[in-house]
Amino acid sequence: MFDLLIRNGTVATASDVFPADVAVKDGVIVQIGRDLGPAAETIDASGRYVLPGGIDSHVHLSQPQAPGIVMADDFESGTRSALFGGNTTVLPFCLQEKGRPLREALTAYHALADGNCYTDVSFHLIVSDPSEAVLGQELPALVEDGYTSFKIFMTYEDLRLNDAEILATMDCARRTGALVMVHCENEDAIRYLIGRHEADGDVAPKAHATTRPIAVEREATHRAVSLAEVVDVPVVIVHVSNREAMEEIERARRRGRKVIGETCPQYLMLTADDLDGMDWEGAKFVCSPPPRDSASQEACWEGIERGVFDLYSSDHCPFRYDDPHGKLNPKGRESFRHIPNGIPGVETRLPILFSEGVMKGRIDLCRFVALTATNHAKTYGLYPKKGTIAIGADADIAIWNPQATRTIRHADLHDASDYSPYEGLEIAGWPTTVVLGGAVVVDNGVLTGHARAGRYVSRGRSSLAGSTRP
Ligand code: URP
Ligand code: ZN
Ligand code: ZN
Ligand code: ZN
């Protein structure tokens, strides 16, 4: 007797699409086939796609950004929103405070997350202070404990590392087999441009985009892949926004380097013109790197199609708009420089790619699964426990109705922000039922799960980045 049987659906993995029933026992997929026998609970998935639950490997929850600024989503609301968007695992960041041990940050983030998640979660570390103690003792021990990836920044005054620090952190990754993710923007160039804009009194949200032009991202991307080459370590270039940064990734790959590229919905769907709205509305679209133009959108779609990008993540980093602790904080109303960076998108990530990518014929269903689940699991050491429909894998499943049509309205979403950057976008296809660890947690659009259902997942080392050679 199975616990759950999903019948008559079309199953898709990163490599195959086939009609099959999926049987679940004790939270794990135990059989895939036909006439599998009785189950305590049966779902009829006729006319539906049965896909691995989405894995969003780039999410910010309860992460401080500046004094007085509060992130809209905590672990409860952020993972609830993720779940409704067809995700079963999210990877938020655990931010090291400068001068403080990483363990201290982990204790704090675990206290926030544990018992408060609707999806499974696993943390990346943000290394803001790569001291000898951190790189020599703390990080190697944490990698052994299953914290196998860390993000470093080339921008943001309080987070940026210099080249020596980047090299030292990458060397720690080389020694420990961890994976480094890099935010590539040249902080000094941005500072210079901010100075010029402020001197001209050009302080509206749009200036956020003009002070972070493509050259700033291209230069930093080139430097990041070059420093990784010097150290001889794989690297993930996160949230790539344009063709020139993509070309740096492709050039490095042609030199034999293992470089993993990530892009996000904002670079496919938004442009810098969105930052130009009336009454400071452009603040809703302030994120870094900024959205570019239609040519960059087209380039990023090409990257999705051709494999420049292995990962498609949300970079969900939500701040309320009409809120003194959010986008319209008192200083943020005076200058773009004080508008918190980041936009919501964990719930709309998958429907946008499904609708704009699969339904419009840009990518097939296998590529969709790879970009949204399988590659995240492989890159970040969760595979094959997660990221695929296979015997022995966790029963984390999203059942999609390709016939469902919806218009994105923030009022229908489940995050704690007060807007969606994609308000009004027409979507074809939606994940209507979600199964987490064998339990139905969203049933035809109705929440049946709870915030204690999500578990913390310790990770192994990356298999996608297992070698510096492609
Ligand atoms: O603007 C953004 N992307 N904020 C989130 C932090 C980051 O850089 O990923
Ligand atoms: Zn970033
Ligand atoms: Zn981010
Ligand atoms: Zn508030």
Automatic annotation (TrEMBL):
UniProt-listed Enzyme Commission number(s): 3.5.2.2
InterPro entries in UniProt: Amidohydro-rel, Hydantoinase/dihydroPyrase, Metal-dep_hydrolase_composite, Metal_Hydrolase, Metallo-dep_Hydrolases_sf
Source domain of life: Bacteria
Modifications made to the protein after synthesis: Carbamylation allows a single lysine to coordinate two divalent metal cations.
Keywords, ordered alphabetically: Hydrolase, Metal-binding
Coiled-coil boundaries: none
Enzyme class, first EC level, given as a word: hydrolase
Molecular function terms, GO-annotated: dihydropyrimidinase activity; metal ion binding
Short name of any one Pfam family annotated for the protein: Amidohydro_1
Boundaries of every Amidohydrolase-related domain copy: 49-441
A GO CC term assigned to this protein in UniProt: cytosol
Cofactor(s) needed by this chain: Zn(2+)
Residues that bear N6-carboxylysine: K151
SUPFAM superfamilies assigned to the protein according to its UniProt record, in alphabetical order: Composite domain of metallo-dependent hydrolases (SSF51338), Metallo-dependent hydrolases (SSF51556)
Family: Belongs to the metallo-dependent hydrolases superfamily. Hydantoinase/dihydropyrimidinase family.
PANTHER family: COLLAPSIN RESPONSE MEDIATOR PROTEIN (PTHR11647:SF1), HYDRANTOINASE/DIHYDROPYRIMIDINASE FAMILY MEMBER (PTHR11647)
Protein known as: Dihydropyrimidinase
UniProt source species: Jiella endophytica
Source taxonomy: Bacteria, Pseudomonadati, Pseudomonadota, Alphaproteobacteria, Hyphomicrobiales
